[in-house]
């Protein structure tokens, strides 16, 4: 099996490559078809998904069995002031990959987001719930999802949220660093969602791509919490002597509107390949333990 990963410098792309090279994850072994195959992970310079001609040329030359799209404009506030950049990366990019994937008869797995929902829900959103994005980031991602469905026959659209992992910048590293440097920090307590360990997401992605269970998926950590709850658990596991205080979104206004409630239900996973996403506290604890083990191995 030949796998092409777009957005190779992202934390998810690096996690996918990491567990493939290792041959297993904390959740289980990787399918032998993937281990014995070839993974080509390309940076933006090597594969600019906003350039249709380049996308077609690269995919035609590689002829992958599967394309995993980890490329996106993920700076939510930056999208508000750079609409054209967000549109090209989050909408046109997936369209281009979908067009090229169909021509090459490749499967396409595309990463989407909880931001396609408006945040007015009171129970976890299922895959069939109506989307209603409020931010430029959410709107451009939603259009990218539409293009994938329109131009590609063999697709997996995987919505995730609150992602953190061993590579790159994320909320866990940010809070850990703030906890080391401060006696107290404030974190919003009125936005609810699902923290997701990159390793869990990567493992389930690799389970999906060897199937023909096409469609829209939610793939997030189990359990719901606020950013404040998430931060409290991070500080506890890190062992920092730092107090976490709750605050409201209004106290820290941002350019882009955040969903007040964006918890997702992994219904499609459960009904197809099985839902192996861990409870968010368990996955976070394992993440900190893996950091300790990684340092011991260096």
From TrEMBL:
It holds the Pfam family RmlD_sub_bind. Residues 1-290 form the RmlD-like substrate binding domain. GO terms for biological process: dTDP-rhamnose biosynthetic process. It comes from the Bacteria. Keywords: Capsid protein, NADP, Oxidoreductase, Virion. PANTHER family: DTDP-4-DEHYDRORHAMNOSE REDUCTASE (PTHR10491), METHIONINE ADENOSYLTRANSFERASE 2 SUBUNIT BETA (PTHR10491:SF4). Belongs to the dTDP-4-dehydrorhamnose reductase family. This is dTDP-4-dehydrorhamnose reductase. It comes from Clostridium sulfidigenes.
């Amino acid at each position: 099996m030949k796998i092409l990963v777009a957005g190779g410098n992202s934390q998810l792309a690096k996690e996918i490559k990491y567990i493939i090279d290792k041959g297993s994850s904390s959740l289980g072994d990787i399918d032998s078809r993937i281990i014995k195959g070839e993974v080509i992970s390309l940076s933006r310079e090597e594969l600019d998904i906003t350039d249709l001609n380049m996308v077609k040329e690269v995919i035609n030359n590689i002829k992958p069995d599967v394309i995993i799209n980890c490329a996106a404009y993920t700076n939510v506030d930056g999208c508000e002031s750079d609409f054209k950049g967000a549109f090209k990366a989050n909408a046109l990019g997936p369209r281009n990959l979908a067009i090229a994937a169909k021509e090459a008869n490749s499967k396409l797995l595309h990463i989407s987001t909880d931001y396609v929902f408006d945040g007015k829900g009171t129970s976890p959103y299922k895959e069939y719930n109506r989307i209603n994005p409020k931010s430029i980031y959410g709107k451009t991602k939603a259009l990218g999802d539409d293009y994938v469905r329109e131009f590609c026959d063999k697709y997996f659209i995987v919505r995730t949220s609150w992602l953190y992992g061993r590579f790159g910048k994320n909320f866990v590293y940010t809070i850990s660093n703030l906890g080391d440097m401060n006696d107290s920090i404030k974190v919003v307590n009125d936005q609810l969602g699902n923290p997701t360990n990159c390793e869990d997401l990567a493992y389930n992605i690799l389970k999906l791509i060897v199937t023909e269970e096409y469609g829209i998926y939610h793939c997030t950590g189990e359990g719901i919490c606020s950013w404040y709850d998430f931060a409290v658990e991070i500080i506890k596991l890190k062992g920092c002597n730092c107090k976490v205080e709750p605050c409201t979104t209004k106290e820290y206004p941002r350019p882009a509107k955040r969903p007040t409630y964006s918890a997702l239900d992994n219904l499609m996973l459960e009904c197809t390949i099985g839902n192996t996403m861990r409870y968010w506290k368990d996955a976070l604890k394992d993440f900190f333990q893996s950091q300790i083990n990684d340092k011991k191995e260096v």
